[in-house]
Specification:
Mean pLDDT: 94
Radius of gyration: 29 Å
Low-confidence stretches: 1-22
CATH architecture of the largest domain: 2-Layer Sandwich
CATH topology of the largest domain: Cytochrome Bc1 Complex, Chain A, domain 1
Shape: globular
Largest sheet: 6 strands, mixed
Strand content: 15-25%
Structural class: alpha+beta
CATH class of the largest domain: Alpha Beta
Number of helices: 39
Length: 977
């Protein structure tokens, strides 16, 4: 049976390959600038693929829309290639790759190295020792020597260099297959960037290890509090008993985290971080002939060496359902997983189509049968495509009164319909049309281009297949899909994970070791940093918006139409924007949700969804407190049909009490589930801290009000929407006048508009004294937000706010991150910022955050409070912050409909110009004294409201009362129902 299945898959794969070659998408070779590269004919991204003499793969996709470049350095080494006795090692190494080399990150390498060698040896002793007392004594030595070594370390020098050159999004991630280092840089800074990367990967030094290891502990504990992550790990463990996808997790086991080996980490680096196992991927504003020469020159020192292949015993067919059970505080749900071949195989293509037939957000089987008909709270299908194997997942959440077995039966019934071919004949054509639109949208973005190239590199997918994908898939027939589904999906060959709401009794948290805060040497800098900063960079002239020139204006009757023309492709986006929302009427949000389940006298709700999807178009209705927005998008050729379809729906939707009854059931279940979500609880606490007992977060319908809502009430709101004044926003190939002409017969404007309903007013409170708002939640960690409302908005403050945030708490180079994570290892995630309001009459808010282990609760609060009271001075960070702001503004380009929303945002703040120019003009004249003055005025010695979400079993009332008057809020007080 297995041989038969593989033979069928190979035949189908061969047929797709032949089809691709017939379309003209073929690999070709060219030489330019002294370098030979491959490319795919007909590739709209014009991507080039080089392999340098040492085996380094370089992928370049030039696009000149913005003077920036998305950069990835990808290594084909992830958790899959971790040693079985040292899981989590690839992820450890990712963290350590930010610590520097012998040339940067060190004040005195000759004095630092002997201490680091001692730490290496101590960790090996620690790793091999089982006696608890001896381990404690060894760790005390590690802590002591680490403190001495840190005196010679310069923390975050990598981040300082990236910030100074205007880098953004500096980060890295480790997954099953890969470790990827990511930066978004100004195109003028490429020489600086490549110099830094070449040095970074030359010979990394594992300094400041024990504090970084503690950050990994924190990350592990966050995962233990994440029910979704536990479901994923449980699913993969069951579906991949032989492959390391399931045998190991990315962060690693608690036991291995407690017993790290720097020698093993270093060996891993020398094994896998070799050029023939790495790729440099760039997309953005550059000349590829020039770029490849620069990359070759910088990375030529790397030497190729054999990389041990990852081998595994092939997984055996699943012949009967495998069940796993997961427990946690979040709402219950169900996940079903089917195993398929990996990314380079034909399975991945077919799986993409299968998942879209099941669930595409509009017209899939699950969308129409389960979501539209409200048979489940939520349901979807998705394809998780990896190199060795892929997984089709079906997920669902029950409504009130349903069991997880009911969810299972409903999801499997949709698979049965797929196998029987019970889906519309034109669904495949609609899927292809939507793929075409998606490709156009992705190719607009240099980030998306680079991401797609990077994914193909690490998963082994042929880029030609990606380029030809839409063309190839358009030739797959319904009969082939049905045959494939019957071969690969049955009622027995899956893993099913039941996520129950309840206490997880199997959690073993990583305990807090004692860590003495280490030096971060903020003012120090290595000669290498100075050399990188001194590398010349081409000047880039900033481009500010001129709203009068950049925005075209027209009228549709008495309604303003604002437009930006799309001169690149056929995509349009259209918005109707109303200056009213749930603060004007709490029913607005419910009416917006209700609309998606309604039909007209001529079309059912399912028909409406099918029609939008067939047009490769979409619409969405969103409501915030003060703004309601109707948005539509699609291909300009279908503009009139898309708008007409929406206008018909909004004008002629019919009330349906049965649909509303189902919506109420689902909404009540969603509201119950929100009370089980720690993120939602924290949102409620923060809103309570800002506004008091009655606040925007709990400005919702009570249970009694929800029960009393009638279908006619909601439909009346929807029908009446056209009678309120609004602004039309258009981004697309037409000019403003052309768009107005096209819209006039479609979008009817009344002779006069009704006044907006009176809005409820929410006023930010004054924090007169320290207060603690606490919500109990069953979790390993403790999450703390500091909240304080400050002054009313004034545009004059914008430069000061930008500089303060960048210096203080806006990134890995800022003093908050350096102090709380790098020096004291008190958190995985921490930040602080002075938040700007969205309208001119509103107030700024000071917000700080630490997510920490419960046993570090008091230390974390103490550390943040010290930073709120006394601001550390670092002229080097000031310089880096100013450079980052200036170079980011020089290269930032607000384009497309972003111009329209930037204008509307400025208008709400009472500003009629691009306010970024104020910051750019002021930044060079500012210094630490300005930051200090700002800190003293806005943060120092002020009372704060502490919002705490934690387990009352782990954080005591006595601890909470240390920081202010304690108020324990019930979930009803937080949520309003």
């Amino acid at each position: 049976m297995k041989i038969k299945y593989l033979f069928a898959a190979v035949l189908l794969s061969l047929s797709v390959t032949v089809m691709a070659q017939k379309t003209g998408f073929v690999w070709k070779t060219a030489t330019s600038g002294g370098y030979t590269y491959k490319y795919v004919s007909g590739d709209p991204t014009h991507s080039r693929f080089y392999v340098l003499k040492n085996g380094l793969t370089v992928m370049l996709s030039p696009t000149a829309k913005e003077p920036r470049i998305q950069c990835y350095v990808a290594v084909k080494a992830g958790s899959k290639t971790d040693p079985s006795d040292h899981t989590g090692l690839a992820h450890y190494l990712e963290h350590m790759m930010f610590k520097g080399t012998d040339k940067y990150g060190s004040l005195d390498w000759a004095k630092e190295k002997p201490l680091l060698d001692q730490i290496d040896a101590l960790y090996e002793q620690y790793n091999s020792t089982t006696d608890t007392a001896k381990r404690r004594a060894i760790y005390a030595q590690i802590d002591e020597v680490s403190g001495k070594a840190a005196k010679f370390a310069i923390a975050n020098e990598y981040d300082k260099m990236m910030a100074s050159m205007g880098g953004q999004g500096t980060n890295a991630f480790t997954s099953l297959e890969e470790t990827v280092y990511t930066d978004d840089i100004p195109s003028s800074a490429v020489d600086k960037y490549l110099t830094l990367q070449a040095e970074r990967f030359r010979k990394p030094v594992l300094r400041l290890f024990h504090t970084e290891l503690e950050a990994v502990y924190e990350e592990k504990n966050r995962g233990l509090d994440n029910d979704g992550e536990k479901v994923f790990e449980s699913l993969y463990a069951a579906i991949f008993p032989n492959n390391n996808y399931g045998k190991q997790t990315t962060i690693g086991t608690v036991e291995h985290l407690k017993n790290p080996s720097l020698n093993h980490i270093r060996n891993y680096y020398y094994t896998y971080y070799v050029p023939n196992n790495m790729g440099v991927i760039m997309s953005g504003d550059f000349n590829p002939d020039v770029m490849i020469k620069k990359i070759d020159q910088k990375f030529a020192y790397m030497k190729a060496k054999p990389v041990p292949p990852y081998t595994f015993t092939p997984e055996k067919p699943i012949t009967s359902p495998i069940q796993r059970d997961v427990y946690g505080p979040n709402p219950e749900n169900l996940t079903i997983g089917f195993r398929f071949g990996g990314a380079p195989t034909h399975d991945a293509d077919m799986l993409t189509l299968v998942s879209q037939i099941l669930s595409n957000g509009k017209a899939g089987l699950i969308d129409l049968d389960l979501t539209k008909k409200q048979k489940l709270l939520s349901a979807r299908a998705g394809a998780d495509i990896n190199k060795d194997y892929s997984v089709l997942t079906l997920t669902g959440q029950p409504i009130k009164g349903q069991s997880l077995d009911d969810v299972k039966a409903l999801l499997l019934a949709e698979l049965d319909k797929l196998r029987k071919g019970e889906f519309s004949d034109d669904l495949l054509a609609s899927i292809i049309n939507n793929f075409k639109k998606s490709v156009i949208q992705q190719n607009e973005s240099y980030t998306s281009r680079a991401n797609n190239l990077m994914n193909d590199f690490v998963t082994g997918v042929d880029w030609r297949r990606d380029v030809a994908n839409v063309s190839d898939l358009s030739k797959v027939t319904k009969a082939q899909i049905v045959a494939y589904a019957n071969k690969t999906l049955n009622d027995n060959n899956y893993v099913i994970v039941y996520k129950h709401q309840g206490e997880d009794k199997n959690i073993v948290k990583v305990d807090k070791p004692h860590i003495t805060p280490v030096e971060v040497n903020r003012e120090a800098q290595s000669p290498f940093l100075k050399m990188v900063n001194d590398i010349p960079a081409n000047n880039v002239k900033p481009v500010w918006l001129d709203y009068d020139k950049d925005i075209q204006k027209a009228k549709i009757g008495s309604v303003d139409l604002l437009s930006v023309q799309n001169k690149d492709n056929s995509i349009f986006r259209l918005y109707y924007r109303y200056n009213m929302g749930s603060w004007n009427n709490k029913l607005f949000s419910l009416a917006a949700q209700y609309l998606q389940y309604l039909g007209t006298d001529k079309m059912t709700s399912e028909d409406v969804s099918k029609q939008f999807y067939k047009l490769a178009s979409g619409f969405n209705t969103s409501t915030t407190g003060e703004v309601t927005t109707i948005s539509m998008n699609g291909l300009q050729e279908n503009f009139a049909k898309t708008v007409a379809l929406y206008e018909d729906l909004i004008a002629n939707c019919k009330p349906d009490e049965a649909v509303l009854a189902s919506l109420k059931v689902r909404l009540k279940k969603s509201r119950e589930n929100a009370k089980l979500n720690k993120g939602s609880i924290m949102q409620g606490l923060v809103s309570y801290a800002m506004y008091g007992e009655k606040n925007p977060f709990n400005n919702v319908l009570s249970d009694a009000e929800l029960d009393a809502v009638k279908a006619d009430d909601l439909v009346a709101i929807l029908h009446d929407l056209v009678n309120y004044n609004h602004t039309v926003l258009y981004y697309g190939p037409l000019t403003a006048q052309q768009a107005a002409v096209a819209l006039k017969p479609l979008h009817k404007i009344p002779a006069s508009f009704k006044p907006y309903p009176q809005a409820q007013v929410f006023t930010k409170v004054n924090q007169e004294k320290p207060q603690v708002l606490f919500a109990n939640y069953d979790m390993v960690q403790a999450e703390i937000d500091w909240i304080r409302n400050s002054d009313s908005y004034t545009s004059d403050m914008t430069p000061s706010v930008e500089l303060f945030n960048n210096y203080y708490g806006g990134g890995m180079n800022a003093v908050v991150f350096q102090t709380i994570r790098e020096s004291k290892a008190l958190a995985y995630s921490t930040y602080a910022f002075y938040s700007q309001p969205v309208k001119k009459d509103d107030r700024y808010v000071i917000q700080a955050y630490v997510g920490t282990q419960a046993d570090k609760f008091n230390e974390a609060i103490k550390s943040m409070n010290e930073l709120l009271t006394d601001l550390p001075e670092s002229q080097k960070i000031v310089t880096s912050a100013k450079d980052n702001i200036r170079k980011s503004l020089e290269t930032e380009r607000i384009t497309q409909d972003g111009i329209l929303f930037n204008y509307l945002a400025a208008k709400r703040l009472g500003v009629n110009y691009d306010i970024r120019k104020n910051t750019f003009d002021a930044i060079d004249k500012m210094g630490f004294e300005d930051i200090k003055k700002f800190h003293d005025k806005e943060l120092k010695d002020k009372p704060y409201t502490y919002c705490v979400v934690a387990s009352e079993k782990r954080v005591s009332d006595d601890d909470l009362k240390k920081y202010g008057e304690l108020k324990k809020l019930s979930l009803k007080e937080i949520f309003g129902y």
